[in-house]
Specification:
Helix content: 40-55%
Number of domains: 1
CATH topology: Beta-Lactamase
Strand order of the largest sheet: 2-1-5-4-3
CATH architecture: 2-Layer Sandwich
Structural class: alpha+beta
Shape: globular
Length: 161
């Protein structure tokens, strides 16, 4: 199934940030990222702001895609939860809804149990929010939210004449 481009209004983006900022605090995480399955960073919160989040987003999406292939070989739809343990930092990734990935980076200040508990609540909130965004987008006529909707062919001809 081909997924349409996600168009998020400022108030929706602010709600995403509110959820992930609360998750950073409640899970005692170093950082939280929301990434779509195409590898685009949607939002970030925590003390890891400023890292190479573009690479983090694309590698996260690649990891989810690769393990999705492994899941299909084993007869599973996907593996929605991933955990990677490092010497200093740990990485918890959860597929949220059909198209988003919630990434939590944490260290010894937190525990996997606490992160999983808090991610379950935040993931549910994000899934509902992204479903609401999708429904709003589908209810609008095609091109209604586009910044180019008001541009006519004559405007384009005048611009390049």
């Amino acid at each position: 199934m081909i997924q349409s481009q996600l168009v998020m209004q400022k108030e929706d983006f602010d709600r995403v940030l509110g959820i992930i900022q609360r998750l950073v605090r409640d899970a005692n995480a170093k950082g939280v990222f929301v990434v779509d399955k195409a590898g685009q960073l949607i939002g970030e919160a925590g003390e890891l702001r400023g890292i190479d989040s573009t690479s983090l987003a694309s590698l996260t999406a690649g990891c989810i895609a690769a393990t999705g292939g492994l899941a299909k070989i084993l007869g599973e739809e996907e593996f929605p939860i991933h955990f990677h343990q490092g010497e200093r930092d740990n990485l918890h990734m959860t597929v949220v809804g059909e198209r988003m990935i919630l990434v939590v980076v944490f260290d010894e200040r937190s525990s996997l149990g606490l992160v999983r508990l808090r991610v379950k609540k935040a993931g549910g909130e994000l899934a509902k929010l992204f479903e609401d965004i999708r429904k709003k987008a589908e209810a609008q006529p095609p091109g209604a939210g586009s910044p180019f909707a008001e541009i006519t062919d004559d405007d384009i001809d005048n611009l390049f004449s």
